[in-house]
Amino acid sequence: MTKKTAQHPTSSHLLCIQGGIVIDPGHVNGRADVLIQDGSIIEVGFPLTNPLCQDSSVTILEANGWIVAPGLVDLHCHLREPGFEYKETIATGAASAVAGGFTTICCMPNTQPVNDNAAITKFMLAKGQEAGKARVFPIGAITRKSEGEELADIGELVEAGCVAISDDGRPVMNSLVMRRALEYAKAFGIPVVDHCEDLHLTDGGCMNEGMVSTELGMPGIPDASEEVMVARNLALAALTGVHVHLAHLSTARSVELVRHAKGQGLPVSAEVCPHHFSITEEAVRCYNSNAKMNPPLRTDEDVQALKQGLVDGTIDVIATDHAPHALQEKQLEFDTAPFGIVGFETALPLTLRLVHEGVLSLEQAIDKLTRSPAQLFHLPVGSLQPGTHADIVVFDPNEEWVVDPTQFFSKSWNTPFGGWTVKGKVKMTLVEGKIVYDAR
Amino acid sequence: MGLQRKDLLTIAALTADEIQLILTTAESLKEVGGRDIKKVPALRGKTVVNLFFEPSTRTRTSFELAAKRLSADVINFSPSTSSMVKGETLVDTARNIEAMQADIIVLRHSSPGAAENLARSVRSSVINAGDGWHEHPTQALLDVFTIKEKKGRVAGLLVVIVGDIAHSRVAHSNILALTKLGAEVRVVAPPTMIPLALEHFGVTVFYHLDEALIGADVIIMLRLQRERLGKALLPSIREYANLYCLTPERLKLAKADAIVMHPGPLNRGVEIAPSVADSAAAVILDQVTNGVSVRMALMYLLSGSGERSTLNE
């Protein structure tokens, strides 16, 4: 239904999302309409007061009491292009992202070639533009080829558009190199992201080391493999004063270490992935390679600690670590199959389980997926304040659906959540005021 | 009564009654090996495929002999693990074999859970002949068979397992089988070779061999895998031998009638002194003989022949 009371016809494009509950963390939480002009938000409120809302050209999008929130922001994903297009491309990854409500995604540099130079960064940005779905922000490598030895040309990477640096998947083992990377990054004001893992301690392990790994005869990855590097990174953050962002924490002691460091005022932030707070090492029992990821699924005690970390703010953000792998790779035996699972299309409902369980409020949950990650990486998104990009997700927090990986927009189906009945369905995703996903 | 399952994948999944059934069947089949004509027609017309992705002469030969004594046709298939790396999954290989109408597939593979995965995707019966560090159920069955044969029982015996428990499928399956049958199990190794959470398996952990051996009825020595040396698990073979080699002096700490077992092949002078390996206490060759009977029993029971009386035809 278009408004009839036209005044002056305008050449600009007007959109109004009406009838929803707006949750813009820190700003709005309640019944409100959202008025969008030319891809930017111009007003959020109820009733709207801007005269443009009466314009005859306004396109109305009915939100039917659904939640209207800033588009989700993912600080950690693998889009596999260039080099591994059989697993995912930037286009399929970005389509998967918007289907999951993500409008901004930061992709890790472990492509082939590695994103350690401006040419690759620009290629990724161009592919993201071309896809026209989620905004794609590359994360550059810390070291050349992510080999952990010489620093990559970090200035060039930032200039080209990288929003952070990381050697995710091939963590920097040499602490001196890590120290220098942090110091060097200071000049550019970008966070340094570390996948905390001591590869010597991991020693070929492929699941959590504990009772289940002993029962299954599977080489284990001890908690200490992560914690040793969390502790190292905290010490280096103290030494350099540079923001260290700790990727995908999985153990209770990691949470405790970060809590203590934050208490001392260190410049550190932390993320957790939905799978790490949703399931435990028990999921590996039938040798399900879709329950194989790094860091591995841990124990119930760790799950509780991660939840507590989210509640008290020790853990700042929820990130997917979307890591597509082809079917034939995950059909290998558990110990030889690659690490990682896809995450875009299940992250929101898995996060909403925390809301339905009463662990987080809906606003807290959305904050961990929007405002908080955007602020950490200094991204100009994650809010519905007037003047910002109209990147928006509209979802029904209560609608139940069954996860069917074959229906994913991602090229890959590697998820342990196939067959799960989950609550919370994305209805519509907008980027810059344009509908990029529509399931109304 | 037969074994009401398609496959034999783990000791973990077996009940004590099932283990007893296998042992009893093996007992009656053992006599076949002593005959002039060592063959019964129980599996005549059936095809057994030995699918070994890891090199093994002893275990494969034992399965082959067992199948042949039951009159089955036996194919040995040893694809190199490298061909798997090139893209063919284990399941593809096995489906090919199944398409040739194999009744029983005996699988040895370096990946834990390989047998379980295979069993899920083929109709043939699968026998696990060792999957990574996970299980080696037929070894445990032949070990408890040998213990029962020599000691008349398993329940109430004190069994000491010595060596690299963390990386041993033999130890894992034996711990499960022995505890299910009511034995008291001690394990002895340097702490680097004891896996996390082992206490949940109902065993007592020792670090010093002399303490653990006191009062033992059965001593199972594990082979020291020399490739563990580069992994900082051990200072040297010399030190390991000093601390963990079963010598005649140490053997005296056990009960006077204690038996000594070893899954082979032996590292003489490393985990076991030659004089112990060659002593009357050692039942290592009985284990080999019994291995054939136990594997015959398993194939017989899994082939669905348990109900019929083909055994003494």
- Helix- and strand-based class of chain B? alpha/beta
Largest interface: A-B, 22 and 29 residues
Q: Write down the CATH class of one domain in chain A.
A: Alpha Beta
Q: Order of strands in the sheet with the most strands of chain B?
A: 7-6-5-8-9
CATH homologous group name of one domain in chain A = Metal-dependent hydrolases
Distance between the termini of chain B: 18 Å
Can you characterise this structure?
- The complex is a heterodimer of chains A (about 450) and B (about 325).
- With about 450 residues, chain A is of the alpha/beta class.
- Chain A has 14 helices and 18 strands.
- Chain A has a domain at about 70-375: Metal-dependent hydrolases (TIM Barrel, Alpha-Beta Barrel), CATH 3.20.20.140.
- Chain A has helices at about 90-100, 120-130, 155-160, 175-185, 200, 210-215, 225-240, 250-265, 275-280, 300-310, 325-330, 345-355, 360-370, 370-375, and strands at about 15-25, 30-35, 40-45, 60, 65-70, 70-75, 100-105, 135-140, 165, 190-195, 205-210, 220, 245, 270, 315-320, 390-400, 420-430, 435-440.
- In chain A, helix 1 (about 90-100) crosses helix 2 (about 120-130), helix 4 (about 175-185) crosses helix 7 (about 225-240) and helix 8 (about 250-265) runs parallel beside helix 10.
- The longest helix of chain A is centred in the middle third of the chain and has 18 residues, at about 225-240.
- Chain A is globular, with a radius of gyration of 21 Å.
- Chain B has about 325 residues and is α/β, with parallel strands linked by helices.
- In chain B, helix 4 (about 90-100) crosses helix 5.
- Mean pLDDT of chain B is about 90; it is low at about 305-313.
- The interface of A and B includes residues 203, 209 and 214 of A.
Q: Any descriptors?
A:
heterodimer; A: 440 residues; alpha/beta; TIM Barrel; eight-stranded mixed sheet; five-stranded parallel sheet; 14 helices; 18 strands; disordered N terminus; B: 313 residues; four-stranded parallel sheet; 12 helices; 38% helix; globular; disordered C terminus
